[in-house]
Amino acid sequence: MEPLSENNDAPTSSSPHSHGGTTSSNKEFHRQMSLPSKETLEVLEMLAKSYQELVDRANGIEADFRTGTSSGGKATTALSQVEADANRLQEKGVDSVQIAELHSGKETARALRRSLNQGLEDFFERLGFLFKEFRKGSVASDGKNDGGDVNGAGATVNDQHAKNTGATTRPIQQPTTTSSAQHQASPAAQHQAASSAHMCGPTVRGGAQVDPQVVPPGSVHYPSLSPPGDVRGERTPRRDLDQLPHLRQQEQTRQDLFRQQHAEQMRQQQLQQEQMRHQQAQAQQEQMRQQQVEQMRQQEYDRQRRAYLEEQRRAQQRDPFGIFGPWGGLDPYRGRRRGFFDM
Fold this sequence. Notes:
mainly alpha
């Protein structure tokens, strides 16, 4: 299995059975492969095709952004969808493939999945770089105006590097200062960058907006909801709400609604606790009543048993030999017992 190339091409299998050999060897190889192994390899090949489609989509978004066809906001939205699809491909596709239960073809499937994981990891790093570029609101002409080195053929270093390594490689980041970027960018791009920098709200990985009813209003500036090590980098803090009265009113309304929901939840919890305490008290009272009834029954049984034993003892004292028994003195079992005259 060949490692993933630098241009993020779809991983392909380098097995001798798949590339070379005679027709008979290919038939023997497919005959040796079990049905689950064949299905697993087909699933991995489909995942590799999906991965290549994501790479092509990212290349198209980057090309539209650098040529000025799409703005930074549109490019960020489209790239966020690509990132969400890549996350779904890794979590529900590559990570869910089971290889340990295969009867044959384990090494091929394992190498293919390893190359897919490595390719997705590099793809996420490239997405993080593109997110930072789109957030700056730069256009394709910035690289040329900043003095991109031109070779003898008239192409910049970035174009020559992309031609040598493939269209999907990471472009070289030009070190530009904030002042130079502001002077070189157009007024529309500056306005869009300022709007995206000040008006960005809490987002999660994938670009989806967070429901304001779910996020507890702790402070004006929400903390970053992205996991540690997120490739999208640090978030830009929001503008102070004192400068935007309508946003401050929305924030106050959101806080009031959250307090009402919290108070309702606390009231429901208190009611449930009171009901549980009442049920426990009733159960304890019923248990104590049952214990008292059983105790009274046991006491009555003991009293009757003592009376019966006392009656038997008095009868034995009155008739020690059992002559006047229930048989009228003709007890058939009397001769088998040792009595007074048998001693």
